[in-house]
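The protein record quoted in full:
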Amino acid sequence: MTPPPAAAPPPVPLFSLYRVFFMLGLLSFGGGVSAWMHREVVQVRGWMTDAEFISGFALAQILPGVNSANLAVYLGQHLRGPLGAATALIGMLTGPFAVVILAAVIYHRLVGLPGFAAATAGVAAVAVGMLLRLGLTLARRVPRRLAAYTAMLATFLAVGVLNWPLVPVVAVIAPISILAAWPRNPTRPTHA
């Protein structure tokens, strides 16, 4: 006798989705939001797996626009469909919108504060560290194949070291990487 199939987990409530992305948008500075998204959505709440997140992260990187906004749309879509995508994006943008408007109003006072430039440089350094951590975490989960590591290294060298433009590099490396990772069926039926 086979056990009954496990019940699907209940859908993530839209208010919970909004609250998480509101806090992510409000408390993340300097580009480290993708790392926080991974932590909150995968590690803390278990709303999706690492593999699902990695797929969305990769897609968000190659689509035009702000990577974190692209990732929020993907995560919201994955968790609750189109309404979830809109909820995650709006949640992520609401807090920063209010902060930016407030900062614009008082910017001339902030610039005059001693240590303001050092504080912003510190925030940027933290964001770089968080992105490095996310990169290392995701790299560990890449299938252990020479083609995957070669694609990662080639992209890093081309964009990070040689400063080649991202779009042409991705346009060349992505199709090669997809072909190299494409599943192959070694036991194809033969027709007589």
